[in-house]
Design goal:
With 192 residues, the chain is of the alpha+beta class. It folds into two domains: 3-70, Arc Repressor Mutant, subunit A (Orthogonal Bundle); 82-191, Arc Repressor Mutant, subunit A (Orthogonal Bundle). The chain has ten helices and five strands, in the order H-H-H-E-E-H-H-E-H-H-E-E-H-H-H. The protein has helices spanning 3-14, 21-28, 33-44, 67-70, 82-94, 99-106, 112-120, 143-148, 160-165, 171-191, and strands at residues 49-54, 57-62, 97-98, 124-129, 137-141. A hairpin with a 7-residue loop joins strand 4 (124-129) and strand 5. Helix 1 (3-14) crosses helix 2 and helix 1 crosses helix 3. InterPro entries: ScpB_csome_segregation, WH-like_DNA-bd_sf, WH_DNA-bd_sf. Keywords: Cell cycle, Cell division, Chromosome partition, Cytoplasm. It holds the Pfam family SMC_ScpB.
Length: 192
Amino acid sequence: MDEFVRAVEATIFASAEPLTPDEIGLHAGEGDVDVALRTLTEIYTGRGIELVERGGKWHFQTAPDLAHLLRRTREEPRRLSRAATETLAIVAYHEPVSRAEIEAIRGVQISKGTLDVLMEAGWVRTAGRRETPGRPLLYATTNDFLKHFGLGSRRDLPGIDDLKAAGLLDPLDETVFEALGQLQLESDEEED
């Protein structure tokens, strides 16, 4: 292989983007770029990588029959919606809690899908039924929830003072947490 063909090969290989023959010529120096490209195409035919032209630009790519070897399966982390995040926090701080109690704390109805997402993630489970008229389902967190968030138990959940100190509460959130605390106090008084 002559020096010009090697220079064309190195230019294409080192480029982050596909190159036109004119761009290749600017980097590789003097010579017939088209002849060099034909030579390289023949050399790389049937190998693990190949030289291809797409839309007038040249680049190296993995041979199509080997592409499956380079694919990686990975889980894409799903971000929780604000409703799901709020629901998870309510369940964590007030478990066992019914759907009606979650809605009362949030001030809006939650869709069934919100709890389904949390249950699919393995962070929320059903925890029986409340012994009241209608016997509503109760929800609680799981061990997977504790593991995912690095908690030994629910007692390790940060308190409102911890969240304020970390700068994680805005004024609206503080109001919500104060309402949650008031609701918990009322709930505790009813149980006594």
